[in-house]
Amino acid sequence: MTVRTRIAPSPTGDPHVGTAYIALFNLCFARQHGGEFILRIEDTDRVRSTPESEQMILDSLRWLGLNWDEGPDVGGPHGPYRQSERGAIYAEHAQRLIDAGHAFRCYRTSDELDVLREARKAEGLHLALKPADLALDADEQARREREEMPFVVRMNVPATGTCVVEDLLRGTIEVDWAQVDAQILLKSDGMPTYHLANVVDDHLMGISHVLRGEEWINSAPKHQLLYEYFGWDMPVLCHMPLLRNPDKSKLSKRKNPTSINYYRKMGFLPQAVTNYLGRMGWSMPDEREKFSLEDMMASFDVQRVSLGGPVFDLEKLTWLNGVYLREDLDDRAFLKALMDWAFNEDYVAQILPQVRTRVDTLSDVAPLAAHFFSGLPVLHEESFADVKLEREELIKLLQFLVWRFEAVAAWNKEALLAEVKALGEHFDLKMKAFLAPVFIAITGSASSTSVMDAMAILGSDVTRARLRHAVEVLGGVSKKQAKRFEKEYREL
Ligand code: GLU
Questions:
Q1: Which of 23, 91, 169, 323 has minimal Cβ neighbours within 10 Å of its Cβ?
Q2: 8 lines ligand 1 (CB under 6 A)
């Protein structure tokens, strides 16, 4: 048997470090067995998936050196590798399940589902809805079919008993069937859900081992049952431990930068990031901290993965990056790294229009443009001394802007301007007054190039990190304040 693994990202946002971590382990597992590593785009959520996100994910994984053998951009014998292009395959497979009595058309309306769930809650029962709960009487079912009312396709699941799933790292996992609902397989628009598409594709693409995050454990019983219904062998499952913040909570962008774009823009080296991700729950047999991707592939053993939640610690990553920069790169390689990072024509060309109207000599450029070539600016409370806002109001303004910016999908000047205007009105501040503290947070000084352009050029991750940094410098947000802020923000 050829070992085939895959990474199956959903292109619904920034390229997440968690995706890179899972990709890395799948890649190493495949290589260690002389196998293949596939990239599949799971874009069945048509509302949230974007081509920009897909492109960023591919670019980021490539930047990290995590190359795949088959995928939407490189092709391969099992394509298409984008689920949105495989609709007919899922419809046919759903029909197969219906014909065999393993799935059914469910005409329940969302109001009816709410009532059913409420009733179960009132009785103190599990919220999982079973085929029997969802069944309509025969006449009503026939009427809704005749009238071509919208329906979904759901899978049959046992009402009682225990489902036993094997996991490569965790051994036997038992899940009570009572907790598992009659999962939707095809939505009313005919698109598959993750569960159907994922199982069908893993089978058709010959995937032998599924290494994925532990948040998918609860899906495993449904997947196993689908494999049984289709009469297929199931790939070996291996649920990897989730990355954690230093306080052990699940890694989240509220507490840690989670986008690979952030690390790239802040001047981390791809080999250091990949090395650090390799240390997440795993170690080399000789325990050394610094190793290359090739070293990791050569020494990989999945049994060395430990399940205690690995902590993604920015300080340790920064330390490791420094070791690479100081010890690993010769002058040539250092120069190349600098050029790849920001000292290249593309990037400098974006900066030029910002500085050229403000300089008399070329030597004025570097000091004026310094904020385009740095990480977090050096700020003190006094940096904001001239801003005419109460401290709490000031912190709130910056925090609200971070939250608004988190939700911006297409990062460009117009989109940012719309956010700034909306918040300016909320705070009852003229544009200039609203932007004064933002200016300081982003450029590190009270006079510099246009802050709106700077944010557009620096990108979402660095912009948000600098705003968050300013909030911290001003004393941060207490738990109490956070509650108040969140309430006010929700009502905005
Ligand atoms: N599309 C899922 C994700 O975004 C894939 C989960 C899996 O690997 O099965 O993580």
A1: 323
A2: yes
